[in-house]
Request: fold
Amino acid sequence: MDIADLATQSLNGLQFAMLLFLLAVGLSVVFGLMNFVNLAHGTLYMVGAFVGFSVATRTGSYWAALAAGPVAAALLGAAFYFLLLKRMQAAGPMKQVLVTFGLIFVGIDAVRWIWGEDSQSILAPTAFGESVQFLGLVYPSYRLFIIALGLAVALLLHLGLERTRLGAVVRAGVDDPVTAASLGINVDLAFFGVFCLGCALAGLGGVVAAPVLQVYPGMDVAILIPTLIVVVVGGPGRLSGAFWGALLIGMADTFGKVLIPDFSSFVIYAVMALVLLLRPSGLLAARHGS
Amino acid sequence: MIGDEDFRRHCVAAALLSAAILALVLSGYAGRDRLAEIAILAIFAMSLDVLVGFTGLVSLGHALFYGLGAYAMAAFATMLKLPAGLAIPLAVLVAALAAFLVGILAIRVRGVFFIMITLAFGQMGWAYFQRSRTFGGIGGISGIGQPDLDAIGLSLANPADMALIAVVAAALVYLALARVTASPFGRMLVAIHQNESRARALGLPVQSYKLAAFTLAGAVAGLAGVLAAERTNFVSPDLLVWTVSGEVLIMVIVGGLGTLVGPALGATIWVLLRDNLSALTPYWMLAMGLFFVAVVLFADEGLYGLTARIPWPKRRRPSDA
Reply:
């Protein structure tokens, strides 16, 4: 592997990491706020991708798809929140996890029903249709767009969380929901907002991934496990955890495929097992009430 | 003296066994094969119940031990040409040993992290068997061969005999696990489940008990794997993939946690629904998913919990006499 290969693979790793980040951040913060893992998070990613595909086919515009995917995912997430999650808050996290597990099956078959079995794709926008040359590398500009988008989302979320009033409410809710509520903060409303934002980001991830990866029923399960690994490795409930976890897993997966192709699917699981054994609550563990 | 709760459990188990025997006698070739599958999955689900229902350890990697039992059986039978009488206990031992080793690491973390680390180990096993040339890669191993049971007049190639053996095995596993979970050891597991800090404060070696439960569950899952390998005469990495662990978790929860007979009921419902729904519609997973969600939402203790609504006769206590 020479320097150019190394650089190319690093960019690939970074691009995958940014995709994982878009998914993991919602999952991670929802975990931190509500103390439950939404296994149907991948379903929202898949729905975002398929709605994006339909919009892109009708309008011919990638940018319309990029707007529609997150909106559809957020609306579906909101419906899911009111129909199921809110009613189940008293039932405890385990039941919520199980219900979302059942919804994975529902989601895949509903998508098969509406959009069919075939793999689809969304064309990259014309502005990012070709490869660019820089530093002696030839690299698809669309992948650079994904990297830039991921970094921009990370920066915006960081600023939003650290510098705004809403961010302070969310941080308070993650640290200690009971105290936050007793101080007059409407924790439920903050939770709902964050939940919808997380769903929207998953939908965004679906559209963003569509030109690179295929759009197909089952794409949700394919991304769910690496996303869960990112959340666990980074330590749930932390924006920075989702970011660094995504970077670690994105790179480990990409370089694993290059260096030990025979056992590449081994790598991310081994990384997670190692992290859990050395730091049982993730690399950047958040404090938990329980 | 058994309590009302145990009485109800054994009654439901007896009813399930009677239904199995009836199905064995009445059904044809496909039905008997399905019955064998149900009995094998029931063993698998009961083994997971020891972990999830009794000890409170939710594993999403239990298929690892199911698959290891199946692969060990296949390897012993085809590569080492061991007789079945030796291969079966050795294969169960392999699964138990693997569960012991994985358990040492896995029980160090808790809650959601335990779910994730068991998932990680399960998927590592899956990734290994997918790529391993020794064990046939994605294609797996076929032509495992069936043990010679002519001496007792049975043949595993015959679905009726396979189903009979699987049902008997499931009944024995139920009785054995019911005994284990009712023993002081089993009560300790429940104590850990209810309040781990309290159990520790009472001086219980919590980690050793968890490890023992994990190993026991792994061994029984290995036995289910051995039977699965015998039934299909074939093993492949599909036995270990994480969705298999997820499905067996569904069986346990739909049936009713911590009841043993519930998970067996869950396995029955799972196979029957899957086969009947998939014959009706290509979108059977949608119906299965909704059914599962409905059970989690509305049937608190799973389908077994519904049997509490049957007006069981009150058993007389010695003090009543």
